[in-house]
Each structure stands twice: as C-alpha cells, then as structure tokens.
Amino acid sequence: MCKKKNGVKFLLILAVSIGVLTISIYRGIELYTSKNEKFSYAYQVHVVMPGETLWDISKQYKTPDQDIRELIYNIRQANKLDSVIIKPGQEILIPKTKEDGGN
C-alpha cells in the first residue's frame, strides 16, 4: 500500500512538473515573439564595399525612428558576428522592419 501511495505521489509530481515546464516554455516563446514582433524574418542582402563599416551600412537602412545602435545590434545578431569587423565582398543580412517592407 505504501508503494502505491509513493507511486501516485510520484506521478502527481511528474504531471505537475510537466505542466509547469510546458507553460514556462510557452510563455518564454510568447514573450520572445512579442519582444521581437517589430522585426520580421525578412532580410535584405548587402554586399560590403571597401571602406564600409557596420555604422555606414546601418545609416543606409535604418528607419527614421530607429536607433542606429539597435540596427547594428540586430545586423550582428542576424549574421552571428562576434565583432563589428566586416570585410569587402562579405554578404551581410539586413533585417527588414515592418515599416520598410518586412512581414
């Protein structure tokens, strides 16, 4: 009888834990999506020209209400860049915002 109670307790704890985990994952995805809702998954490709920096490139693509530092950060994230160093001929993905034609 004691083993049966322990088994029921274990199953109950397991079920509650799975429920909490499922809700946590769902909420995390929901928060991430709403936080990044401004940006779509559409990108424009920019080929780096000699002498260009991420700052120069960002100035070309930023919207009037967008902080250029935010765009540089998003470009680095989209391209998995560890630094701001880029090379001529490198193809850089530029995240499009909803305002400039992103979905």
UniProtKB/TrEMBL annotation:
Organism name: Fonticella tunisiensis
Organism classification: Bacteria, Bacillati, Bacillota, Clostridia, Eubacteriales
Transmembrane segments: 7-26
UniProt keywords, alphabetically: Membrane, Transmembrane, Transmembrane helix
Residue ranges of every copy of the LysM domain listed in the record: 44-94
CDD domains named in the record: LysM
Protein name from the UniProt record: LysM domain-containing protein
Domain of life where this protein originates: Bacteria
